[in-house]
Design goal:
By secondary structure, the chain is an alpha/beta fold. It contains eight helices and eleven strands. Strands 5-4-3-2-10-7-6 form a seven-stranded parallel beta sheet. Strands 1-11 form a two-stranded parallel sheet. Helix 7 crosses helix 8.
Length: about 240
Amino acid sequence: MKYIHINCDLGEGGEYDAQLMPLISACNIACGGHAGTVESMHDTVVLAMENNVEMGAHPSYPDKENFGRKTLAMTPENLQQSLVAQILSLKQIAEAEGGKLTHIKPHGALYNDAAIDEKVAQIVIDSVLEFEDKFPIYAPQNSMISRLAGGKIEVVFEAFADRNYEENYQLVSRDKPNALITKKEAVFQHLFLMFTEGKIRCENQRNIHCNASTFCLHSDTSNAVEILKYLQQRFRKKNIEILRQ
């Protein structure tokens, strides 16, 4: 039996959290930057603990208006202060419920910027280093943040099951019609190739190397629950289970 680790961004106001949680390995919980309130963080933490799902903080630029999907001009000090506050708020809620955070995953534009911008990457790393826990960071391979974090913080390489890639490891822009993969069989084929052969099939049909150990499926995809149930069925037929705590 092999095990695949699948993560999902939750606590963002979506309607499928309760249905998605039993189908995943880890959740990345919005903690007030692009989405999330004290109440939603608490509810998501409780839901995760009931389902034995790993919990991570999902901080972003403090920009709910644009759901954290646009780069925000901020001083390094202000951005770091915001990220630390976001992580701390979720950490305190999780610990009050008897749980513990297992990782950090930046959201949206912050995730993308930290992958290519040295200054942003360093701010994210410095924010995580403020915590004694030294939380592992989910990050794309071949990224600036993964290089800068080396030797300081554990990096868990992540790939996206429902997003198309460019050959430079960047995700195809959401502005393009083929950015998302929404057909369940296409998601399975994309993910199966990454997991079993260590290859990402790019938009141009060329392959690039994949060394990810966790794979993300977006919770705001309208058929996300259907996709995850389908993945579970298809993987089981190949003696692969979605990893659970």
